[in-house]
Structures are given as C-alpha cells and as structure tokens.
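Task card 7
Instruction: Convert sequence to structure tokens.
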Amino acid sequence: MKNEPVLQNLNDFENKTLLIVDDDNPFRERLARAMEKKGFEVIQAEGVQKGIDTVKLKKPGFAVVDLRLGDGNGLEVVKQIQQSNTTSRIIMLTGYGNIPTAVAAIKEGAIDYLAKPADADDVEKALLADPAKKAVPPENPMSADRVKWEHIHRVFELCNRNVSETARRLKMHRRTLQRILSKRSPK
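Output:
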C-alpha cells in the first residue's frame, strides 16, 4: 500500500490567488494555464521588481517563485510575500538546486523547493501538501546521469552554446564536453 501524501483541498483556502514569478516566459505561461485549470486565480510576473509590485497590490495566498531571475534573486520576492501575508504558501523553483539555496529559501518562508522542470501536478502537490506530513519521494526521480546531463546543458545554454567557455566553467576538458553534448539524453 502506497503512503500517499495528505493534500488539502483548494476550496479550504479563502485566498486562492497564485503568483507565478519566472523569467522563462513559455514555462510561466504553460504553468499559469495549468494552475488556472486546477482552480487557482493566477497572476504572473517576469521579474523581481514586477513580483514585488504585484505582492504589494494583491497579497497572494500561494506563490511559485524562480530563484534566479533576470533582474535579481527570487528570495527578495519571497521576503516581500512573507511580510505582506505570513500564511502564504511559497514554492521555490530553480534549475540550480543545491543545499545552501534550499536552506535560504526555507529560512525566508518557502514551504518547499522544486527543481525545474517541474510540472503542474508537482507544483499543486507541493502547494497543497499538509505541512505537518512528510513529503513522499517522487515516483520516477531523474537518474544521476540525467541530472548531470541537464546541468551540463543548462550551463552550455547560459554560456551561449560556447563549448570552450562551458568547459572552463565546468572544469572539464573541451573534447570530453563535446562528446557529452553529442550524445542523447540519458533516461
């Protein structure tokens, strides 16, 4: 028998407003549409300043905030949300998952921390999970090889697809990196 997490019902919450702060426009739009279908009243912001301005106007009951945004750090938005609505449930999203940033996000008031790409079901489960219960491990987590492959490709994209620059930042030989980049993604 599976140990299913106890999810609260969205209708139990008075404030169903969900703020999504992410500078990846296609991802943000897709997530917003999916969360609206699940019953949330979605507001979008593409950066730190727009997110903070939105929080001041509407105090969201829920928030999904990307850690790294074009104009700063998503933790600034989390701080503002916590100041305006201490009962707000905040999820940090990032492609740069590591322990120090997860700890910082939780200290600022986030209730969970998800690695990108997260789908709407993962986000909904995290937002509506009972805070007193322990999270269930994912059914099909990414393999270690897949996580490494995703990280290498993310750095490659951030370096404007420059192999030499990517290799230098990852502290690996350029030819080794070229071999990795030429292969298909692991499962």
